[in-house]
Design brief:
- The chain is built from 5 helices and no strands.
- The chain has 131 residues and is mainly alpha-helical.
- The chain starts with 12 loop residues before the first helix and ends with a helix.
- The model has no long low-confidence stretch (mean pLDDT 89).
């Protein structure tokens, strides 16, 4: 947790869910990368390995966007962080579908990620009303 994080932020359900999604994305990416890292017989790489990195990059940005929205005083800037959070969530969702087409046993975990993202979207809707 960041040193300048407000004390009540860690108690917010949306913030906790963002951290859970990050941990889940990280574990899925690690699992998938073991299957997708080897080169194909023709010497090319599996393009899906990039999507596994994307889900980690996008999920790591969720919690900071929540923090920024909570700390922002100006409503216009606050809504920019909220919009960014929505885009990240939608990209995560889209990339989970892209990864599901990969040739890996780890793709079985992607519906779990999407289920958590659905919960996150619900939390996001109620959280936005409190800002």
């Amino acid at each position: 947790m960041l040193t300048n994080t407000p004390s009540n932020l860690s108690e917010l359900p949306i913030y906790q869910k963002a951290l859970e999604i990050f941990a889940l994305s990280q574990n899925i990416s690690l699992y998938l990368s073991n299957d997708l890292a080897p080169l194909k017989p023709d010497g090319s790489e599996d393009n899906n390995i990039y999507f596994s990195g994307d889900i980690v990059q996008q999920s790591v940005s969720l919690a900071p966007e929540i923090l920024n929205a909570e700390l922002e005083r100006h409503s216009e800037r606050k809504y920019k962080h909220i919009a960014s959070l929505k885009r990240l969530t939608n990209r995560l969702y889209k990339n989970s579908y892209r990864l599901e087409r990969s040739n890996s046993n780890g793709k079985d975990f992607l519906p779990i990620l999407r289920s958590e993202l659905k919960k996150f979207k619900k939390l996001q809707s109620s959280w936005m009303l409190t800002l």
